[in-house]
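Appendix B. Chain record.
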Amino acid sequence: MKDFSFSIFPNENFLDLRIYQYGYEQCAPLKSFGPFIRNHYLFHYIISGRGLLDATAADGVTTRRYTLQAGQGFLICPGLINTYFADEADPWKYVWIEFDGLHASESLRYAGLSAAQPVYQADDETQSAQVRDLMLYIAEHPNASVLHLIGHLYLFIDALIQSSSTRLSAQSNQLKDFYIQEAVNYIEQNYQRNLTVEEVADACRLNRSYFSKLFKDNMGCPPQEFMIGVRLAKAAELMCSGNTPISEIAVRCGYSNQFHFSRAFKKHYGTPPQKWRAQNRKHS
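Structure tokens predicted for this chain:
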């Protein structure tokens, strides 16, 4: 194995889970990254050595320092400042995957990982090795098909959930999971309409305030923000193929005003829809 590998995932649009980049590195003593703010979730698994993570909590202010070693991992959440650096005497080697998607925060919640709990620790060495090997497989096969790599991303996340010592209990969260899944299904089936949080809460037979808190606690964002994400992800999918005018795509995705759509799209993707389409259109 080489000391360093870095790959960008091909520009394909996957809504539920998507890879952005991945790789591995044997770091030099005291080599650091940051302070950086990521746009997506970034998970590192430490293959050997040691290092430190300075992670900003969800409040955006409090910073905690974590001392980490081989067999552990750490999660960097989007929108928060993080810095991490290798030990001087025993610098770490790690493998990483940057990913996101509509179900990324939910999957990480099941693993018990968040800005408040960014450190991964497996229940045993065999499970830990499985997480490592799945990540290395992705990092070492940049020429594999995108569906092949996405399949291994799902396997990696499943292994992460099943092995994590902080994973949630399936039984204790069964009813909450039912309500959240009902809400997600309802949003994905009705995003084209002028959908409101009240309507989704009513569909789940819950009080709006309780529903909003339950949704945010479980999904990592308010229901309104999730609805916007679904609409814009569907719009991006439509723009990747075909020649449907952007004004029509906006209407199909629940935006009666194209200006409001363009503003929301640029805020979410960092690029106006016309420019984004030119960069991401699939050519037959």
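Further analysis of this model is presented in Appendix C.
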